[in-house]
């Protein structure tokens, strides 16, 4: 007689389902916990911003009235806030253009150059970047006073351009490092010069890096107070951060106009970043090397 065939026990198909349901439930609980934590942190961070907008709706003491946009009307019509806004926009625009125009080729040299001169230039940029701004304020003020630039927007613009160039060059060089040099070599083989390949190949693929550098330069100039308050003395030359301090009084502060100017000062960076945000992208160069 043959031995009876042994059968292996077949595991029940539903044995793993409780574990899967438990893992899915834990994952959902973790997502909700992270969402709740991020919501609380966001609410805490936005409390000062909400306070600024709420206080900006208070009416100015000089005119009285109810809660509304009277403070905005007051600072735009009865003060020099519009003129200060124009000064800030003009200085910032010139600084951004100059910083990008100079930092782009300088960053290209730092990215592609491999010799002692370029290495020394990179080290010099790092040293200049690490120095505090206050170290150079007094010598610059003495120099600019002798040149007649102590109380002028031109002098402040020169300082802003010089102060942002080092970091702007590093930012451009870091983005140029992500662009394969084989793209430039292909352009050279087609008869393009080095400068031509820089314009037609490198810069055309560096829009996110250029925009990042421009936004960085914009924020540095737009939010600066130390340089402006030291070099600018005339009310006609004030930028918006310096003009904001004129609303503070010794014994009392009219918070409605102060916060209205603060809201006006916040709007341009929000508008700039909102308009340029869609141009930020990564990985746009990978397709250029397909098939290689």
UniProtKB/TrEMBL annotation:
Q: Report the transmembrane regions from the record.
A: 35-57, 89-111, 123-145, 157-176, 210-232, 255-276
Q: Where is the composition biased (Low complexity)?
A: 1-16
Q: Which domain of life is it from?
A: Bacteria
**Where in the numbering of this chain does the ABC transmembrane type-1 domain appear?**
85-276
Keywords linked to the UniProt accession: Cell membrane, Membrane, Sugar transport, Transmembrane, Transmembrane helix, Transport
Q: Where in the cell is it found?
A: Cell membrane
Region span, Disordered? 1-23
Q: What is its main location?
A: membrane
List the Gene3D superfamilies: MetI-like
Recorded hits in Pfam families, A to Z, give: BPD_transp_1 (PF00528)
Q: Write down the membrane topology.
A: Multi-pass membrane protein
Q: Which PANTHER family would you find in this protein's record?
A: INNER MEMBRANE ABC TRANSPORTER PERMEASE PROTEIN YCJP, MALTOSE TRANSPORT SYSTEM PERMEASE-RELATED
- Family statement drawn from the similarity comment of this UniProt entry: Belongs to the binding-protein-dependent transport system permease family.
Please report the name of this protein according to its UniProt entry: Multiple sugar transport system permease protein
What lineage does the source organism belong to? Bacteria, Bacillati, Actinomycetota, Actinomycetes, Micrococcales
């Amino acid at each position: 007689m043959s031995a009876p065939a042994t059968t292996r026990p077949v595991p029940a198909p539903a044995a793993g389902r409780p574990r899967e349901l438990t893992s899915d439930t834990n994952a959902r609980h973790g997502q909700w916990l992270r969402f709740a934590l991020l919501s609380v942190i966001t609410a805490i961070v936005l409390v000062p911003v909400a306070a600024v907008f709420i206080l900006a709706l208070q009416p100015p003491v000089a005119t009285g009235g109810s809660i509304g946009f009277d403070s905005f009307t007051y600072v735009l019509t009865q003060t020099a806030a519009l003129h200060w806004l124009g000064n800030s926009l003009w200085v910032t625009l010139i600084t951004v253009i100059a910083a990008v125009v100079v930092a782009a080729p300088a960053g290209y040299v730092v990215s592609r150059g491999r010799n002692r001169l370029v290495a020394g230039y990179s080290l010099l940029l790092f040293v200049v970047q690490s120095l505090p701004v206050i170290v150079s304020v007094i010598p610059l003020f003495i120099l600019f006073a002798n040149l007649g630039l102590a109380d002028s927007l031109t002098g402040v613009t020169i300082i802003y351009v010089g102060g942002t160039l080092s970091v702007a060059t590093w930012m451009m060089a870091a983005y140029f490092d992500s662009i394969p040099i084989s793209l430039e070599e292909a352009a050279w083989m087609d008869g393009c010069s080095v400068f031509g390949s820089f314009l037609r190949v490198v810069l055309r693929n560096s829009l996110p890096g250029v925009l990042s550098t421009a936004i960085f330069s914009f924020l540095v100039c737009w939010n600066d107070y130390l340089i402006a308050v030291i070099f600018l003395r005339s009310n006609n030359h004030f930028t918006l951060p310096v003009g904001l301090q004129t609303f503070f009084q010794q014994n009392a502060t009219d918070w409605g106009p102060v916060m209205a100017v603060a809201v006006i000062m916040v709007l341009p960076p929000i508008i700039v970043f909102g308009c340029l945000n869609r141009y930020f992208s990564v990985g746009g160069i990978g397709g250029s090397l397909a098939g290689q």
